[in-house]
Amino acid sequence: MASLFKDLSKLSAYRDRRFPGNQEEFEHALLTSTTVYVGNMSFYTTEEQVYELFSRAGEIKKIIMGLDKNTKTPCGFCFVLYYSREDTEDACKYISGTILDDRPIRVDFDWGFQEGRQWGRGRSGGQVRDEYRTDYDPDILLMVYDNYLQICPCVNYMFDFL
């Protein structure tokens, strides 16, 4: 039978290779953390929009927007820190899959924010996931176009169709 909400009995299949402990410690951190990772966001989604949506699950301690490490611009992810584990579980259960800025966002338990995790880890400066995309994503196309113009502004006339 189909379910409307995310099954919380399954922890994230994603394993952060930069987590400073072993697998058992990682799983314990996921089970006790009050932080969620939010992915597949538009590059144009604001912190205020994230706050408005995620505050429905509970009181928010802090929001950290993910940034391209080269351009320091948003690159489609963020971390939301709650005060309670219950609010964290509600965010994962009820908000994952919600449409925000015309995109279905992905909400997952995270082991906890540490300084430095706000930067994209991809070779281009953004998310690693974006480097493996095979589908068309207009936000990424515009970001690549803007970055290219910074390097070579003389080609602007070639892209008047955008």
From TrEMBL:
It is found in: Nucleus. The keyword Transcription does not apply. Signal peptide: none annotated. GO terms for cellular component: nuclear cap binding complex; nucleus. Pfam families: RRM_1. InterPro entries: NCBP2 (IPR027157), NCBP2_RRM (IPR034148), Nucleotide-bd_a/b_plait_sf (IPR012677), RBD_domain_sf (IPR035979), RRM_dom (IPR000504). Residues 34-112 form the RRM domain. Keywords: mRNA processing, mRNA splicing, Nucleus, RNA-binding. Belongs to the RRM NCBP2 family. PANTHER family: 20 KD NUCLEAR CAP BINDING PROTEIN (PTHR18847), NUCLEAR CAP-BINDING PROTEIN SUBUNIT 2 (PTHR18847:SF0). This is Nuclear cap-binding protein subunit 2. It comes from Lupinus albus (White lupine).
